[in-house]
Amino acid sequence: AAGVIQSPRHLIKEKRETATLKCYPIPRHDTVYWYQQGPGQDPQFLISFYEKMQSDKGSIPDRFSAQQFSDYHSELNMSSLELGDSALYFCASSQGTSGSFNEQFFGPGTRLTVL
Amino acid sequence: GENVEQHPSTLSVQEGDSAVIKCTYSDSASNYFPWYKQELGKRPQLIIDIRSNVGEKKDQRIAVTLNKTAKHFSLHITETQPEDSAVYFCAANNTNAGKSTFGDGTTLTVKP
Q1: Which end of chain B is more exposed for a tag (fewer CB within 10 A), N or C?
Q2: Peptide bond into A8 cis (omega under 30)
Q3: Residue B96: its chain A contacts at CB < 8 A?
Q4: How far apart are the first and last CA of chain B?
Q5: Is A108 on the interface with B (CB under 8 A)?
């Protein structure tokens, strides 16, 4: 069965550079969530999109932005990278958000290292 | 917003024993409670979930209980095996909002 695809799987950047992370949800899933997981931490919700509109916003820094495209894939854009941005970034997808079954399927993650 | 507390942070059991992990949540609007198993460097994998209209759910060696009044839910693993060793996260979710708020995680070690 198709799963959530994330690219790249690993990314190394310098401080103050920019990075773009991509997420391709499971086919027919219309909702995408982004999570940031620091070493030894639980996943922290950043932002989500439902039908290409932002549906919720968590602890996403102003330096980050994201969007969902017409094919439902999503991109997380990160600018002015800081050392503290080094983490695993997970994307998850689900089918619908409002009152419906909400099992989230996680992608393999992108490991971002900021030097 | 939602706040999820998870205990214990580490748990060590002997193979064959049971393991219990407990979580509490704060937002009475939360109505969906998944549990994830995460191995080092891997994605969280859903192992069981429960909805607020159900008090208990079981799947082979894994069970989850929910007390909506007290706002707490628990994961029970029976007949533990070394391959159960991982970090387990509980989460609380309001299906109208969608996002999951995770507990801090429990590192389970099953000793052979």
Answers
A1: C
A2: yes
A3: 97-99
A4: 41
A5: yes
Residue A97 is encoded by which pair of tokens? 């958000």
Nearest CA in chain B to A89: B43
- HEC secondary structure over chain B: CCCEEEECCEEEEECCCCEEEEEEECCCCCCEEEEEEECCCCCCEEEEEEECCCCEEEECCEEEEEECCCCEEEEEECCCCHHHCEEEEEEEECCCCCCEEECCCEEEEEEC
Instruction: Tell me the shortest Cα–Cα distance from A79 to chain B, in angstroms.
Output: 24
Measured between its terminal Cα atoms, the distance across chain A in Å is: 36
Q: What DSSP string describes A14-58? A: -TT--EEEEEEPPTT--EEEEEEE-TT---EEEEEEETTEEEEE-
pLDDT of B33 strictly over 90: yes
Question: Confidence band (pLDDT; 50, 70, 90) for A108?
Answer: very high
A98 vs B34, B96, B102: nearest CB: B96
Mean pLDDT value across chain A: 92
Name the nearest CA neighbour of B67 among B81, B80, B55, B51.
B55
Residue where the block lists tokens 């994201």: A66
The residues pairing with B58 across neighbouring beta strands, listed in sequence order, are B63
